[in-house]
Amino acid sequence: MKKNWWKILASVLVLFSIVGGFLFHVPAKPILNESIRNIYFHVPMWFSMIITLLMSVIYSIKYLNTNNENYDLIAVESANVGIVFGILGLITGAVWAKYTWGEAWSNDPKQNSAAIALLVYLAYLVLRNSIEEEQKRAKISSVYNVFAFPIMVILLFVLPRMTDSLHPGNGGNPGFNTKDMAPELRPIFYPACLGWILISIWITTIRYRIRKIENKQQSI
Amino acid sequence: MRRLFLTSFSLLFFYGVSIAQNTDGVEMADALRSSGKIYVVVTVISVIFIGIIAYLFSIDKRVKKIEQKK
User: Fold this and answer.
1) Residue numbers in B near A209 (CB within 8 A)
2) Residue-wise pLDDT tens digits, B27-41
3) Exposure string (b/e) for A101-110, b if CB count within 10 Å is 16 or more?
4) Which residues from B are below 8 Å from A206, CB to CB?
5) Is the CB of B14 inside 8 Å of chain A's CB atoms?
C-alpha cells in the first residue's frame, strides 16, 4: 500500500482537475468560450505521451547497454501506452478544433506533425512484429526507437514553430512565454498534467508486468 | 487507502465549489451553474473517472496475485 501512494496521488490530481476544470473561473475569450477548459484534458494527453515515449527511449538505451530483456519489454509497453495517449490527444484535438478553428483537421502544422509522429511510432510496433527472432527484434527496434524519439521531438516542438500555426505558442520563438497561458489556468493545468502523466506510467507498469508473465510462459 | 482517497477528494470538491462562485461581465456558463446543473456533469464525470481508477486498481491487484503465484 505504501508503494501505491503515487497512484492515489495521480487519481486525486486528475479528479481535482476534473472538478476544478469544470467549476473554476476561466478567462472569457472570444471563439474559445468555455472550451478553454479543454486545455486541462487535451494537453495532458500529449504530455503523458511525451513522458511515456521518453521512458520508452530511455529503456531502449538501457537495453542496448545491458542486453537485459526486461528493459526491452518496458520500452515496448511504454511506447504502446504513449501511442494510445497520442491517439486520444489527436481525437480530442480534432473535436476541439472543429468548434473553434472550424474544421476537425485544418492541416495545422502541429496537427500534421503530431500525426506523423504517431505514424513513426506505429512503425516501431510494426517493425517489432516483423522480426521473429527475439534478440534481433529487441536490438533492431531499440535502435529504431533511439532515432524515433528525437524525430518526434522535432516534429512536435521544432517544425510547427517555424511556420504559423493555429496552436498557441507557435510561430516565432515563444520559449517560456508567460503570455501563453493565463495564470489562473495554471493551478489546475499543472496538477492535471502531473496526474495524467502518473496515470500513464501506472498503466505502463501494469502492461509491463502482464507482458513479463506472458514472456515467461512462452519461454517455458 | 480508500478513506484517504475519499477524504482528499471531498476536500478538493468543496474547495472547488467554494471558489467556483465567480461572475464577470461576460456570460459563460453562469446560468448552468446557478441552476446547479453543471454539478451534475462534474459528478457524472467524476463517477466515471473513479470507476476507471477503481478498475485500474483491481487490475493491478489481479496482476500482483498472478505474479505471486509464479
Assistant:
1) 63, 67
2) 565 544 554 567 777
3) beeeeeebbb
4) 56, 59-60, 63
5) no
Distances (CA, A) of A56 to A51, A80, A142, A201: 9, 9, 9, 11
Residue matched to cell numbers 461581465: B25
Q: What is the DSSP letter of B28?
A: S
The CB density around residue B16, as the number of other CB atoms within 10 Å, is: 21
Residues of B in contact with A203 (CB under 8 A): 56
Q: Which chain B residue is nearest to residue A216, measuring alpha carbons? A: B70
For residue A77, the model assigns a pLDDT of: 95
CA distance B70 to B65: 9
Whether B41 contacts chain A with CB within 8 A: yes
**Phi and psi for A124 in degrees, rounded to 5?**
-60, -45
* 3-class secondary structure, A53: helix
Note the pLDDT tens digit of each residue in A185-213: 889 999 999 999 999 999 999 999 999 99
Burial tier of A120 (Cβ tally within 10 Å: 0-12, 13-18, 19+): middle
Indicate the angle between helix axes A39-66 and A134-153, nearest 10 degrees.
Answer: 140
Is A24 within 8 Å of chain B by CB?
A: yes
pLDDT on residue B35: 47
Show the low-confidence residues of chain A (pLDDT under 70): 1, 169-180
